[in-house]
Design brief:
This protein is mainly alpha-helical and 110 residues long. It has one domain: Cupredoxins -  blue copper proteins (Immunoglobulin-like, Sandwich), CATH 2.60.40. 57% of the residues lie in helices and 0% in strands. It is globular and about 30 Å long.
Length: 110
């Protein structure tokens, strides 16, 4: 079972389009997806407080690589209480959410 999950994960990451952090429609789509799927627990707004659990999107973008963010969304640790997005979310949607998270760092820097 773990081998199948690993193969699925690698195939998803290798077959995924580049994360669209600089493309406004995709970032906006990521924000809308985050509002509907993530904002119940995470602070998804720009300038969100840096907290450990659950981390704000601002903190996630500051400390995690894009590939790690994808992995955490699709394949959570066993102790994490997050929906099992790998069961129903398309990789393009995950990429949009990651792009939105990364765009928060650009806003903070600019």
């Amino acid at each position: 079972m773990k081998k199948l999950a690993l193969i699925t994960m690698v195939a998803a990451l290798l077959g995924a389009p580049a994360i669209a952090q600089n493309d406004e429609p995709y970032v906006e789509a990521g924000r809308r997806l985050a509002e509907g799927n993530c904002a119940h627990c995470h602070n998804i707004e720009p300038g969100g407080a840096f907290k450990l659990y659950p981390p704000s999107f601002q903190a996630i973008g500051a400390y995690w690589a894009p590939e790690m963010i994808q992995m955490k969304i699709l394949y959570q640790d066993h102790a994490v209480i997050m929906p099992k997005f790998n069961r129903y979310m398309f990789i393009e949607n995950v990429d949009n959410i990651v792009g939105y998270i990364l765009s928060l760092q650009e806003e903070d820097a600019g």
